[in-house]
Structure formats: structure tokens, C-alpha cells
Amino acid sequence: MAGASEDRAITTQAPRVSAVVPCYQEEATLPELHRRLTGACADAVGDAYEIVLIDDGSCDRTWETIAKLSDADPRVVGVKLARNHGHQIALTAGLELCRGDRIFILDADLQDPPELLAPMMAKMDEGFDVVYGQRRERAGETWFKRASAKAFYRLLSRLSDTPIPRDTGDFRLMSRRVLDVLKSMPERQRFVRGMVAWAGFSQVAFPYERDARHAGETNYSLKKMLGLSTDAITGFSIVPLKLASWLGFVFAAIAMGLIVYSLASWLFFSTVSGWTSLIIVFLVLSSVQLLVLGVIGEYLGRLFIEAKQRPVFIVDRVLVGGTEMPPKLRLEEASGSSLA
Ligand code: UDP
Ligand code: MG
Predict the structure, then answer these.
(1) How far is CA 328 from CA 3, 12, 185, 238, 248, in A?
(2) Quick one: what percent of the chain has pLDDT higher than 90?
(3) 21 in helix, strand or coil?
(4) Are strands 315-320 and 76-81 parallel, antiparallel or unpaired?
(5) Is the CB of 189 under 6 A from ligand 1?
(6) Residue of minimum CA distance from atom 24 in ligand 1
(7) pLDDT digit string (tens) for 20-60?
(8) Helix (H), strand (E), coil (C) string for 43-68
(9) Which ligand is nearest to the CA of 220?
């Protein structure tokens, strides 16, 4: 356990860099992550850094591992969420609590090399507010994951007016003022990389090779990936809603034509029992109606979630250098933002 005076120094002085790492079932990678990340931070900023590890309600020994690291290293801030909130919300909790002038976001599984902190800091010194990692390679990922990610980024950039960079995850370095913009965005369905792009300022890509996972397996199931993509699209585009009305128009026009056609055949030709055409018209129209309703439902559901104004995340415990902090106090201390 770190000494009290050291603790106080760490809680009152803003570090130059906060590394923010959401962790879900990462007990196997955390010691190695800590070793490499402390090395990378020390190289970049000496000892003026903190490492914020957020346990996103893991069922393995992730929290115990974080607590042990925090005991041994006064620069480790451990945050335990009350349950699994998902990657983007865990990240939001870390962003809310961190105090650094610059914020370095990376995954716990070492797919994003921590050693890139120093070159990303150097890039930022050139006058950028966001230096985002852009993947050149995705080692150790399945064909399906790579193809679906690629298709998703292309679709998103077509649908959204916000220029969300392609092949870019949350791995990035950003300035405090960009973080302040993020913290002023109270939405619950958060697609952090899109929100950073939306903030603007000067942003620059930093191409890198994405490594394979250090240990364990991806925690992003197909369901979570679909959820994230839907949050991204509905959060950054109203094109699907417009699509619903376009489809409505197109099919209304087709339906008018069909009505004219059926009236004409009734008037001028002998009307054969047109079961096939009837059933086709019925199927097409009812499926389009369902589609349109579904799109409206997606947005309505999201409006409903936002309207409830629930807290975005719930903090169970906070450890700073092994010392327990009251989560409430720490949140207010750290930000005073609307999210807390
Ligand atoms: N993660 C999280 N909560 C979740 C799922 C994942 O905090 O519910 C974290 C995970 O520990 C990792 C990051 O989010 O640090 C990315 O997850 P993962 O590596 O499983 O996704 P992938 O890299 O395969 O997209
Ligand atoms: Mg990963």
C-alpha cells in the first residue's frame, strides 16, 4: 500500500497523461498490460501519469488483479462498475474519472501497443487535439470480423454527416478540451469514437499494426457488435428514418399503379381470380410496413432510453494507489460533469 502523502500528491496533481483501459474478463492480460503500459508511460512522460483500469463487471478475477496492481503501484486507479455495462460505457466511466491533460485510450488485451504512446504524444505536440490509431493490419482476427468491420465503417461513413474515420477503434490520444466536449454529451448510447470525431478540432490518423490478443478471447460477441453498429448508425445518422419514408413513398406509388391496373383489368378484361398477384402485393406492402415500423421503433426505443435520464454507469468502488475512495466524492472531484 502506498504512503498517504504520496496518495495525496497523486490525487491533487493533474498527471500529464491518463491511460484509460476498460477491462472485461482480462485477468490473464492485466499484469502484462501493466508492465508494458507503465514502461510506455514512463518513456513518454516520466512519472506524470495515471493508469485508470475500469472493471466492467467481470466474473473472473479481474477486479482482484486490478486491486493488487493498485496496491503495488500508486499510479493505478481501479474503478469497479456495479455490473457489466459494455465497453463504451466502461470507457465513458474511465474518461469521466481520469484527470490527465492528455488521455490515452487503449484496450486491455494488448491489441493496441502501449509503446505507441510516445510517438502519439510527439504527433500531438505538432498541434493536434486527437491522434487516433488507424489499423493497417488486424492480426489474429477472423475473416468475418475484418470483413464486417470494414463493411460497417463504409456504411457508417455513407450514412453520417460526421466524418467518422474508417478502420479506427477507440485507440487514441486526445486533449483535455476534446474530453471536455465528450463529457458535455449526456447521451446514454455512446459510440465514443464517433463522438470524438463530432467534437472536431484538429484530428490526425496514426497508422499502426493491430496485434493479436495477448490472452483470452474477444468479448465482443456478434450481438455486441451489432448493438454497437446500431448505436453508431442511429446515433450519428437519421438516414434510416428518411429511408423509411422514401420506401413508404416508393411503395405507395407502386400501390397506386397496382390499384389503377386492377381497376382497369376489372373494367376492360375478365378478372381472373388473381391470387398470386394479391398475395405478392400483400406480402410486399406488409413487409415494407413492418420495415418502416421497425426503423421508427429503433429510434423511438432510443428516445425512450434517453428520456429516462438514468445515470450512464454505476460505480461500485474506486481504488487510488490501493486506497479506497468514496466513488461519489471522487466523481464530483474529478469532473462536476452532468454524467456523474
Ligand atoms: N470490454 C469491456 N466490456 C465488455 C466487453 C469488452 O470493457 O462488455 C473491453 C475489453 O476488456 C477490452 C475492450 O473492451 O479491453 C475490447 O474488447 P475485445 O478485445 O473483446 O474486443 P475486440 O478487440 O475483439 O473488438
Ligand atoms: Mg480486443
Answers:
(1) 23, 17, 20, 36, 49
(2) 41
(3) strand
(4) antiparallel
(5) no
(6) 218
(7) 999 999 999 999 999 999 999 999 999 999 999 999 999 99
(8) HHHCCCEEEEEEECCCCCCHHHHHHH
(9) 1
Segment 62-97, tens digit of pLDDT: 999 999 999 999 999 999 999 999 999 999 999 999
Q: Give this prediction's pTM.
A: 0.76
Asked if 338 and 184 touch (Cβ cutoff 8 Å), the reply is: yes
User: Which ligand is the nearest neighbour of the Cα of 225?
Assistant: 1
Residue of the nearest CA to atom 3 in ligand 1?
87
32 three-class SS: helix
Quote the crossing angle between the two packed helices 30-45 and 62-72, to the nearest 10°: 40
Ion ligand 2, residue ranges at CB < 5 A: 107, 109, 111
Query: Quick one: pLDDT at residue 339?
Result: 41
pLDDT at residue 235 tops 50: yes
Nearest to 78 by CA among 105, 52, 107, 104: 52
Q: Is 108 in the pocket of ligand 1 (CB under 6 A)?
A: yes
Residue range 2-223+311-332, CATH number: 3.90.550.10
